Amino acid sequence: MFRKKRIKLGKIKKILGNSFQRDILVLVLISVLMGSLLAGSVSMTANAYFSKTVASLVGDYGQQDIVIQVREEMREDSAAHIQKILDEVYPGAVMKEGSTITGKTTFFITLPDQYKTQKNYEELSKVFGSIPGGAGVGVITEPRLTIRGVPEGAKNTLMDRIMKIEGVRFVFRDGASIGVILDSVNVMTGVSSQINSMLKEYQVIEISFPVGSEPANPVRLGDDVADALQSELKLDYAKNVSTDGKNDDMTYMVSTMSELKRFLQAYASQVTITPAAGTKLEKGDSVVLQGHATAAPVSGNAPVQGNVVAEVAEVRSDGSADGSISQGDASWLESSPAGVQGYKLEKGLVGSQSISVSYRNPRQELGGALTDTGKLVAQIPGFAQDAKNISNTAFDALDNYGSSIQGMQQTLSSLQSAGSAIQAATGGLANLDTTGLQNQLDNSSRSLGGMVNTLQVLKLMNADVSSTIDSLNSTQRNLNNVRSSLSALDNIAANGRKAKTTIDNVVANGQTTINTLKAFNVEGARAGLTDANTRLAVLGQVNVPVISAQIQYLANAVPNLKDEEISHSVKLLDKFIAGQVIPGARIQILTTSKVSVDAVTPIVQKQVGHNNISLYSSDLGVIEPNTRAELQQMLGEIKSILAGMTAIIATVLFLGLDHTAIMTVIRRKRLSKKNPVTGWRKVNERLTIGFTAAERRYGMAVGAVMLTSMFLLTGGGMPYLPWIGVPVLGALLGLIVAAYAEKISPIAAEEVMAGEALGMSFDEIMREIVIPSGRPGLMHKLNNRKVKFK
Q1: Residue 584: is its pLDDT beyond 90?
Q2: Torsion-angle region of 679 (φ positive above 0: left; ψ -120 to 50: alpha; else: beta)
Q3: Disulfide: which of 156, 344, 581, 775 matches 353 by Cβ 3.0-4.6 Å?
């Protein structure tokens, strides 16, 4: 054990002594220092150049607060104007002119600390908006975070929460994004993490509408959707954030205008256009009608004053179309069941294709309905009084209801008694059969008639028979009278029976009626009439004349709107609404709960009224990478790459100029001691010699040490090259140089052999023969002071 330690100490003393190994160690050390100095100088120089260039474009990191770009030709005037603004609004602010690129000159402004506030930053565009040649104003205060993708209506809520985070100086609106100014760079990671967690607490449900399906009032619809989601899904929070909640007055103004637009469109004349055979209509086409012009439209001419022009809004599947009047008014058209004849406009001129147009004017219908309603309202007092009189009459009838039922009962009793009397009176006659007697009397009457006829013949011969004939005629008449009396007696009995049956039916029906009348709820009817009288009294207190006057006023006002006025007003409202921050093509709902789109879809479709929508879900916003910080990071990476590339080049140069001669000597020494082998050993040697040869191990070791040391000292780095790969790369460079060492630095074998013959040591051969005859490099310079034979 002690012997091994003595051997190691001996080797160390040999290396530290005046040996060639020490020369190699010094060479490697100086090579690393020089390579590191070279790599550091190159990377620092390049970094300084790039940093200066970047600073001229975006300012020094953390030194400036505002950047303003102006047109190059207005640079001097703009500089004077900016300085004047700074003196008046931000006393103590410093302006610095930057570089000019693509015709734009940049000015950087450093604000005093007291002016770095939310209010000042949000008013920068207003303060510097009058600069001549101004092209844009931006904030470059650092350290800063930028949050993008936050809906307008949610910005205030998010900004209030961010302001409560420790390390946040203030928050401001930066265009469509939110800027967060921090107290220092040290808190950036923590603040960024808290903001990310905050953003993930919220969810934005976006409802998109395709072209043509936009809601008439997105503000109101968004509020309705938010209320429906909160109530039906039991959400803790749901709010329409499609609009900027800070500008409530403008939001409500635009909402009112949307409702006004919807009202105007509802009462615009509805036109149905039916083309003739062979004529095809498309959305946006126009049709001209005569209107109250003196003559019908002429083909090839433009529409004249008094013509009515209708525009196609939607084409139906059968070829007909719905439209609205853009010029003139529907009242100018004649009403015809077959429609009004018109012509299609082609490039602003009347075409030859005939069109049939029918229309419906809701304003006229509304005016007529209001007029009729006014007339009806005027009759309300009379109706109320008549109803009250009827009610009083009904009260009287109810008061007499009981006595009337009692009278009916008495009448039925009398009828029943009369029926009994009739039955008693006709009962005896009913059993008397007078049929035989009537037949006998009839026969006797006919016999007397025959006798009279015979006596009439005898009278011609004897006049005295006349008295007998008269007596027989008288007797015949008496017999006929008796027969008639007997027949009447039979009729009386039959009629008595019928009368009794009829009286019985009347009594039975009357009794049923009385029972029904007794079941009637008189008190309930009386209470209903009392309530009706109360309502009639309230109706009588209504100020009917005022209502009638207001209805008549509306009836007179509605027809004053012309279709062309409605059309122009709707277009003007569209322009105004489109210029505001209220999007009509999408609605954004903010909620704190994580709700699936599938659960939201049916509720939204119910509120919208159709299924032609698209729903998306996203976080409240995202933290945007800091451009300046990313640029600084990129410059740092460029510096690291340049240092690494320079270190690689220096390593290759040092290996090629200083160490190839050494590796050549090691190779010759290895080959001189080599024992020839054959067979598989020779094949194995060829496979392993590439990495195990002494000169190659030397090259890999020196290359790995130099490159790794230079990378460590200069902070070098390469893309996609981990630190563990640096020594591997250095060893690979040393291996490649070692493979070509003898070609790069050949040595004179005769001189080396002569030196060995003279008894020179290895160190002396290297210092006196090999190094002086090798490539001129750092080793050559260091070896000059040790050469004895010059």
Answers
A1: no
A2: left
A3: 344
**Cα distance between residue 93 and residue 102, in whole Å:** 27
d(CA 153, CA 477): 121
14 vs 25: CA distance, rounded Å: 12
Q: Which ranges in the chain are annotated with CATH 3.30.70.260?
A: 63-141
- From the list 745, 741, 734, 742, the residue with the least C-alpha distance to 772 is 745
Report the alpha-carbon distance of residue 100 to residue 321 in Å, rounded.
58
- The DSSP secondary structure of 37-69, one letter per residue, reads HHHHHHHHHHHHHHHHHHHHHH-STTT--EEEE
> Is residue 276 a contact partner of residue 255, using CB atoms and an 8 Å limit?
no
- Count of CB atoms situated within 10 Å of the CB of 276: 12
Calpha distance 363→371 (Å, rounded): 12
Predicted pLDDT of residue 168 = 93
DSSP 707: H
Whole-structure pTM over 0.70, yes or no? Answer: no
Helix (H, G, I), strand (E, B) or coil at 71: strand
In order of 43, 400, 582, 711, the CA distances from 56 in angstroms are 20, 110, 39, 30
CA distance 73 to 525: 96
DSSP structural state of residue 73? G
Chain segment 128-179, per-residue pLDDT in tens: 888 887 667 888 888 889 998 888 888 888 999 999 999 999 999 988 889 9
CA dist list (Å): 720 to 607, 717, 724, 725, 726: 54, 9, 11, 9, 11
First to last CA, the chain: 45
| CATH architecture of the domain with range 63-141 | 2-Layer Sandwich (3.30)
Which among 702, 717, 775, 715 has a CA at the least distance from the CA of 745? 775
